[in-house]
Design brief:
about 120 residues, mainly alpha, 7 helices
């Protein structure tokens, strides 16, 4: 399936500008942002991740005993999302529609599951 076919409704034959097209684009945008945050997260030293978690926990007034692994990842991700420069959806959409091939390599495939879930909810 070509990028253009994927872009136009994930192969469901959606017309450009339809709700399913919008859902696919939003899912791809979320996937792109997740990939960017993940790349930054994985590039950090363990010590820096713990510093980020501690800073965010203090800011949210969460005690050390309340932090399990999932909570730590959530706090680090929240802080990174606030600090990693990502385009807003409309900017990303415009850029993506101009040259989808530049963005496809950054997508992790999570958008497919999300757009399928959106389609099931619409039925």
């Amino acid at each position: 399936m070509s990028s253009e076919t994927e872009h136009r409704g994930a192969g469901r034959g959606a017309d450009s500008g339809s709700e399913s097209d919008e859902g696919v684009l939003r899912a791809k945008y979320a996937d792109y942002c997740s990939a960017q945050i993940t790349e930054v997260f994985l590039s950090l030293a363990d010590e820096r991740i713990y510093e980020i978690v501690e800073e965010e926990a203090r800011e949210q007034e969460i005690g050390p005993g309340e932090l399990g692994f999932k909570a730590m990842v959530r706090l680090a991700t929240k802080r990174l999302r606030e600090s990693v420069p990502l385009p807003d959806f409309e900017t990303w959409r415009s850029d993506y529609e101009t040259a989808p091939e530049l963005y496809e390599k950054y997508l992790m495939g999570l958008w497919r599951q999300r757009s399928e879930e959106d389609a099931r909810e619409a039925d």
